[in-house]
Amino acid sequence: MKEIRIHGRGGMGAVKAAEALVYAAIMDGKYGNSIPFFGFERQGAPVTAFIRISDKAIRPKNRVYQPDIVMVLDPTIMNAVDVFEGLKECGMLLLNTTHSIDTLNLPETVKTVAILDATTIAMETIGKAITNTVMLGAFCKATELVCIDTVAEKVEALWGAKNKEALYKGYEAVQVVHC
Predict the structure, then answer these.
(1) Model's pTM, two decimal places?
(2) What are 146-153's contacts with CB under 8 Å, separation 24+?
(3) Residue 10, pLDDT score
């Protein structure tokens, strides 16, 4: 079982991104569940979504405290939240950033980093700085846990063709480095 934690801000689509990943996992013949966690329940406030994906039935229905993978939709959230809290050894970080991997101050638990400038891609593709679909594309390529085409089907149903395009652009743009 892989446990994933998504960090974003209210209005960025972290919870819907989690739902899209679980949908794709189930359509791919796997098991999945997602659990949202809202802090102040207002736009711009930190939001966390938790996901589990497995080849076997998933019993836990609580938050993910020790994720294998952490996805950060908005890099400024790292100033307010410890996104690395509980990250397992050999963990993966998927990060929306304009910085290079060399300039990131990463804990030793991070063994794989996937980065891209999702904000610019989102602005150019959908006209808004909502990065969830771009980051879903990056997630598909970096983890290979779910099929990009299955995620694309759900993304298009939820948000339309421009977001589907943003998904594929995220898939193409992500840089994956093993530390």
Answers:
(1) 0.94
(2) 146/21, 146/24, 146/25, 146/28, 146/30, 146/53, 147/24, 147/27, 147/28, 150/23, 150/24, 150/27, 150/28, 151/20, 151/21, 151/24, 153/24, 153/27
(3) 87
